[in-house]
Design goal:
The structure holds two protein chains of two kinds. Chain A is of the alpha+beta class. In chain A, about 25% of the residues lie in helices and about 15% in strands. The longest helix of chain A is centred in the last third of the chain and has 18 residues, at about 430-450. Mean pLDDT of chain A is about 90; it is low at about 1-50. The model of chain B has no long low-confidence stretch (mean pLDDT about 90). The relative contact order of chain B is 0.14. Chain B is built from 13 helices and no strands. Chain B is mainly α. Chain B is about 75% helix and about 0% strand. Chain B is flat, with a radius of gyration of 24 Å. The chains are: A alpha+beta, B mainly alpha. The interface between A and B is large, with 78 and 80 residues.
Chain lengths: ~600, ~300
C-alpha cells in the first residue's frame, strides 16, 4: 500500500514563508514599550527650587515631596458599574466608586478618627427644642465662575434631593429626619416646604421631625450643587467640563466616557480642605481581576480592597513581601455580613430553629480559612470601634455547639433535619469571599443538621426586587450593611419594623427610636442602643458572621498625615475616602520616590 | 438577483420586528428596574416617581408602540447608563472601537489561518502539520479571556513591554487583537486543512492534474475555491461576533467599546440600550448571512439563489 502524501507537497508554498510571517508578528508584539503617557521630553519646571515648593493654593509641600507636576494620583474606578455622575445629590449609586464629590464642600467632614469636623460650615448649634439647627457657612467660599457659595445653593440642592420628579436614589436617607422631607418626596407638599431654609446668605437652618442629635454627622452628605447651574443645565451639569462649576478643591477638566476622568486643583478654591495633589486621573478598569496587574505595572496607584481583591489576589499579596508592605487593612465602612431568615413564615418563625442555625456557625474555621485578613468575627451587628459596639458581650450568646444545635432542631420538630424543607440561600451579586462563606455554612448545615441548602448568587437588581417584595421572596440570605454616618441610629435603623427585613420587634423599635432622639447623657444613649442590640442578637433572626476589614493597596510613594496611624493604630486610607466628605484629601502627597515607579508626565 | 435581494431584505425587516417584540417582553419580565434600591427599598411613591420620569408607568403595549414609533424615526432614546448622550450617539461612539479591534483580528486571523491550514495540508503528517494542529486545538479550546489574562501577565506585568490596558495608542491594540484573533485563526486553519485535503483527493483535481495544469493553477482554480465553501459556512458567524464587541476582551484590556454594554445594559435594566443592541445584533447577523449566501454563488457557480425557471 502506498503511503499517502499530500498532492500539494511541493515547491510553491514554503514553510519558511509561514515562519517568517510568524516572526514578523512576534516582532511587532515585541516593539519598544510604550513610554509613560506623554513621552519623555519633560523636565520639572523649576529644576532647582531654592525655597520650599508651594502649590497654586499656597500650600507648602513637605521636603520629600515630588515636584508639583508629579503630584498626580492615578486611581481606578470600576468600569462595570453604571456611572452617570460625580455628584451625590444626582445619584448616589451611579457615581464612580471613587474620586467623586470633589467639586463643592459638604457642611461637615470626617477626620481619620471619624470625628465630625467643620467643612463648609464653620460652626453650628441647635435650639432648646432640639429641632432647629443653625449652620454658619464659611463666607469665603466661591464658585469658580466668580459667584459666592450661599445658603441658597444648599437649599436648592436639598430641594432637588426631595423633588419627586428627580426621584433621587438616596431620598430615603433624610426621611423622617428633615421636616416635611417624606411628604415632599411623596409629592404631598411642595419641595419649598422641607425643613431647610436660608436665613441669610451664609446662614442655613434645618428643622427636624424629632430631636436628631446625629444631624451634623448625617450632614456628611451635603456637598451642594450650584443653584444657578442646576437651574440652567439640570443635575448632570458636572458631567461635562464645559458646564461644570466648582467651589471645591478640584475642578473637572476631562471626562472621556468609559475611559477616564481628570481633575485638576482648583486655583480659585477658598475653603480649608487644601490638597497637595495637583492632578487626579481616574481610570476605568472593568474587570476587578485586572486591578492587581495594573497596579503591579504601575498604571494605577491604588486598589480599593473592599469586594475587589479576590482570595487568590490576597494570597498573592500575602506571599509577596513588597505587595504585603503596601497592603493597608482598615475598618472600611464598618460593614457587617450576616445571615438573615424570613421570620414571618415557617420554619424560621420558630425561635428554636433559628437558634439551632446560630449554633452551627463556626466562625473560628470560616474566618481564618476563607475571609482571612478581610474580616474579623462578628457576634453582633456593631463592629468594634463603632460607637456603642458591645461585641465582647455577645461572644457567648450562640457559641459554636453542634450538639446543642441538633437538640434544638429536634425540639423544634425536625430531628436530624427530618421534614425540614429544602432551602435556597440567596446572595446579592456577591464576590468570591462571601460566596465561599455562604457555601461553608451551607455545608455545615447539611453535615450537622441534615438541612439541604442551595446557594444562589443572584444579579443585584433581581435580588433587591425579591428582598423588597411584600411579602419578601428571600427566605434565607447572606447580606451586608455598612454605615452611612457614624452613629448607631444609622446601623441599627436597618432592623426597624418595615425596613429591610420582615423581622419586627416593638421593644427594639422603641429603644432604637428613643435612643436616636435622646439628647441627654451620651452614656445613657449608648446603653439604650446596646440594650436594643441585645434583643437583635438574642432573637437570632440574624446570625452575624464577620465584620469586613477591607485592605487597600497603596503605592509607597503616597504619604502624608492622613495615612499616619489613627487613634487605634490603623494606618490606612480611611472611609469615606478622597472626597470633600473627608479631610483625607488635604493629608496625602506624592513623594520623590515616585520617580522609581513612573516617568514624569509631560 | 434584485428580486432575491428584495425578498431577503424584507425578511430582515420581519426578523427585526419579531426580535423587537420578543426582547421588549423579555426585558420587562426580568425583575427589578432601572431604579436603585441598593440599601433601603424606595418608598412606593418614590418608585412611582421614577417610573413616571421614564414613562415606565404606562401599559407595555403603549410603551412598545411609543418606542417603535420613535425608533423608526431614528430616535432610540437616551441610555439610562449614560443620560448625557443618546443611544445612537453611544453606539456611534463605541461601536467603531469594537469594530476596529474585531476587524483587525479578522484581518490577522483569516490570512494567517489560511496560510497555516494550507501549510499543514501541504506538509501533512509532518512536524509542521502537528505543530499547526496543536496550536489550532489550543486556540479553539482555550477561551480568549484566559489567553487575554496570560498575555497581560506575560507582556505587561513580567516583561513590561505593553500597557495592561487602555486606549488611544497603537500599543493598546496588540494584546486585544491577538487574543481575539487566536480562536478564528485556529478555526480557519483547522477547516482549511481538512477542506484542502478533501478537495485534493477529488476526481476533478485528479482530472486537472491529468490535463497537465500547473500546481499553482490547480491550487487556485480548483482546490482553494472549492475549499472555500465549507470555510464560508464556518467563518461567517465569526464576523458579527467579532465586530460587535466582546465583553471579556474589552473589559480586560479596558477597550471603550460596545461589548460591555451587552452585559451592563441588562444588569442596569437599561431598556433603551437593550432594545437597540438586540436590534443591532439582529440586523448585523441577518446581513452577514445574506452576504454569505451571495458569496456562495461567487465561489461555487452551482449555487443558484433563485429557483431555476426552466
Amino acid at each position: 500500500m502506498q503511503r499517502r502524501t499530500s498532492p500539494l507537497a511541493s515547491k510553491r508554498v514554503s514553510v519558511w514563508m509561514a515562519l517568517l510571517l510568524l516572526a514578523a508578528l512576534l516582532l511587532q508584539a515585541c516593539a519598544p514599550a510604550p513610554t509613560a503617557p506623554g513621552g519623555v521630553e519633560s523636565v520639572a519646571p523649576e529644576a532647582a527650587p531654592a525655597g520650599p515648593v508651594v502649590n497654586a493654593l499656597g500650600k507648602e509641600l513637605p521636603p520629600d515631596a515630588a515636584p508639583l507636576d508629579q503630584q498626580v494620583l492615578i486611581y481606578p474606578y470600576s468600569g462595570w458599574r453604571t456611572f452617570t455622575t460625580i455628584d451625590f445629590f444626582q445619584a448616589v449609586y451611579e457615581r464612580a466608586d471613587a474620586l467623586t464629590d470633589l467639586l463643592s464642600d459638604s457642611l461637615v467632614r470626617l477626620d481619620k478618627n471619624f470625628q465630625v469636623n467643620p467643612g463648609a460650615a464653620t460652626e453650628w448649634s441647635v435650639d432648646e427644642s432640639g429641632l432647629v439647627w443653625t449652620f454658619k457657612l464659611d463666607p469665603n467660599l466661591m464658585w469658580n465662575d466668580g459667584t459666592p457659595v450661599t445658603a441658597d445653593d444648599y437649599v436648592a440642592t436639598f430641594r432637588y434631593g426631595a423633588d419627586p420628579t428627580h426621584a433621587w436614589d438616596f431620598s430615603w436617607y433624610y426621611q423622617g429626619v428633615i421636616k416635611n422631607w417624606t411628604q415632599a418626596v411623596n409629592g404631598e407638599v411642595p419641595v419649598e416646604e422641607i425643613g431647610v431654609r436660608a436665613v441669610d446668605a451664609h446662614t442655613l437652618e434645618f428643622t427636624t421631625e424629632m430631636p436628631a442629635p446625629y444631624l451634623p454627622a448625617m450632614l456628611l452628605y451635603s456637598a451642594p450643587l450650584q443653584k444657578k447651574a442646576l437651574e440652567t443645565h439640570g443635575g448632570l451639569y458636572n458631567s461635562n467640563p464645559a458646564t461644570s462649576v466648582s467651589s471645591g478643591p478640584y475642578k473637572l477638566v476631562e471626562w472621556t466616557k468609559d475611559q477616564r476622568l481628570v481633575y485638576e486643583i482648583n486655583p480659585d478654591y477658598k475653603g480649608t480642605n487644601i490638597p497637595y495633589i495637583q492632578r487626579l486621573v481616574v481610570v476605568a478598569i472593568g474587570q476587578p481581576s485586572q486591578l492587581l496587574p495594573a497596579y503591579e505595572a504601575n498604571e494605577i496607584d491604588f486598589v480599593w480592597g473592599s469586594g475587589t481583591l479576590s482570595p487568590a489576589d490576597l494570597e498573592l499579596i500575602e506571599n509577596d513581601p513588597e505587595l504585603s508592605a503596601q497592603y493597608h487593612p482598615h475598618y472600611g465602612d464598618f460593614r457587617t455580613y450576616y445571615f438573615a431568615f424570613d421570620v414571618s413564615k415557617p420554619p424560621f418563625d420558630n425561635l428554636l430553629v433559628r437558634q439551632a442555625f446560630a449554633h452551627v456557625l463556626d466562625r473560628d474555621t470560616i474566618l481564618p480559612n476563607i475571609v482571612k485578613r478581610q474580616g474579623i468575627p462578628a457576634y453582633s451587628f456593631l463592629m468594634p470601634g463603632f460607637p456603642a459596639s458591645n461585641s465582647e458581650a455577645f461572644k457567648d450568646t450562640y457559641p459554636y455547639d453542634v450538639e446543642k444545635a441538633k437538640q434544638l432542631l429536634a425540639e423544634a420538630g425536625y430531628p436530624n433535619g427530618e421534614g425540614f424543607p429544602k432551602l435556597v440561600m440567596k446572595l446579592r451579586a456577591e464576590g468570591p469571599t462571601p460566596v465561599a462563606v455562604a457555601q461553608a455554612y451551607a455545608a455545615a448545615l447539611k453535615e450537622h443538621l441534615g438541612v439541604e441548602v442551595e446557594v444562589s448568587n443572584m444579579d443585584f437588581k433581581s435580588y433587591m426586587d425579591e428582598l423588597n417584595a411584600k411579602p419578601t421572596q428571600v427566605q434565607f440570605t447572606l447580606i451586608s450593611y455598612g454605615m452611612d454616618y457614624l452613629d448607631p441610629s444609622n446601623m441599627l435603623g436597618v432592623f426597624l419594623s418595615g425596613g429591610r427585613h420582615p423581622w419586627s420587634n416593638a421593644e427594639y423599635d422603641r429603644l432604637v427610636k428613643e435612643a436616636s432622639s435622646f439628647t441627654g447623657d451620651p452614656a445613657e444613649r449608648t446603653r439604650m442602643f446596646q440594650e436594643a442590640e441585645k434583643i437583635l442578637v438574642e432573637d437570632a433572626a440574624f446570625v452575624f458572621v464577620y465584620h469586613q476589614t477591607p485592605g487597600d493597596l497603596i503605592k509607597p510613594f503616597i504619604k502624608g498625615p492622613a495615612l499616619e496611624p489613627d487613634n487605634n493604630g490603623v494606618a490606612a486610607w480611611h472611609w469615606p475616602g478622597f472626597s470633600t466628605f473627608s479631610n483625607l484629601l488635604s493629608g496625602v502627597y506624592i513623594t520623590k520616590d515616585v520617580a522609581n515607579y513612573r516617568q514624569p508626565p509631560q | 438577483m434584485a428580486r432575491y435581494l428584495f425578498g431577503r431584505l424584507m425578511g430582515v425587516l420581519v426578523v427585526f420586528f419579531i426580535v423587537s417584540v420578543v426582547i421588549f417582553l423579555l426585558m420587562h419580565a426580568i425583575p427589578g428596574g432601572p431604579y436603585n434600591e441598593d440599601k433601603v427599598p424606595l418608598s412606593a411613591e418614590a418608585k412611582a416617581n421614577y417610573m413616571r420620569k421614564y414613562g415606565l408607568d404606562r401599559p407595555l403595549v403603549e410603551q412598545y408602540l411609543l418606542y417603535m414609533g420613535n425608533a423608526l424615526r431614528g430616535d432610540f432614546g437616551v441610555p439610562f447608563q449614560s443620560p448625557t448622550e443618546t443611544v445612537s450617539g453611544l453606539i456611534a461612539r463605541t461601536w467603531p472601537v469594537s469594530a476596529s479591534i474585531g476587524g483587525l483580528a479578522l484581518l490577522v486571523a483569516l490570512p494567517l489561518g489560511l496560510l497555516l491550514g494550507t501549510l499543514a495540508a501541504a506538509r501533512q503528517n509532518t512536524w509542521v502539520d502537528y505543530l499547526t494542529s496543536a496550536t489550532a486545538t489550543l486556540g479553539i479550546t482555550v477561551p480568549n479571556f484566559v489567553v487575554a489574562v496570560w498575555l497581560v501577565l506575560l507582556f505587561a506585568v513580567q516583561l513590561k513591554w505593553l500597557p495592561t490596558g487602555g486606549w488611544g495608542q497603537w500599543q493598546h491594540y496588540v494584546m486585544p487583537v491577538a487574543a481575539l484573533a487566536l480562536a478564528p485563526m485556529a478555526l480557519t486553519a483547522r477547516y482549511t486543512r481538512t477542506s484542502i485535503l478533501e478537495v485534493s483527493r477529488s476526481d476533478y483535481v485528479r482530472t486537472a492534474r491529468a490535463k497537465g495544469l500547473s500546481n499553482r493553477q490547480i491550487m487556485v482554480r480548483h482546490v482553494l475555491r472549492n475549499a472555500m465553501i465549507p470555510l464560508l459556512t464556518i467563518l461567517a458567524p465569526q464576523i458579527p461576533n467579532l465586530i460587535t464587541g466582546t465583553i471579556f476582551i474589552e473589559s480586560i484590556f479596558r477597550v471603550p467599546g460596545l461589548g460591555k454594554f451587552f452585559v451592563t445594559s441588562i444588569l442596569a435594566r437599561d431598556y433603551p440600550m437593550i432594545m437597540a443592541l438586540m436590534l443591532l445584533v439582529a440586523v448585523v447577523w441577518s446581513l452577514v448571512y445574506l452576504v454569505t449566501d451571495i458569496l456562495y454563488t461567487v465561489v461555487d457557480p452551482r449555487v443558484r439563489l433563485e429557483k431555476s425557471r426552466t
